[in-house]
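seq:
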Amino acid sequence: MKIRPIVAAMCAGLALTFAIALPAAARDAGVTVTPNFQHAIPNIPGKSLTAVVVDYAPGAASSAHVHAKSAFIYAYVVSGAIESQVNDGPKRVYHAGESFFEEPGAVHRVSRNASSTAPAKLLAVFVVDSGDKALTTPLK
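struct:
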């Protein structure tokens, strides 16, 4: 009997990760977003942890975007160098091993590979309301 809730949670998790990955991959050439992990946070009812890997081809960039209003994001540069600007803060280049965060409601104005010759990889970890489906929305 406990299998059904687990299956339902797994299906919801897969739907959520596809909602994250497919729109970003479809709109930004040279940027691939791959779901990595999704799980409800058991001691924080209504919250989930979701992780995606963002691969940037040389010179590739993500469009300016916002995340779900509930999303707190921790970003870790796995390889290469990523230039980022959150809200009206300064543009900064983060190298492999460095990290930054985005608070709920932040505007991610710049997110791009800082190199025109080498790929870059970013791990983005979201703490988000479990009901939020579209985690990334491009700005018009």
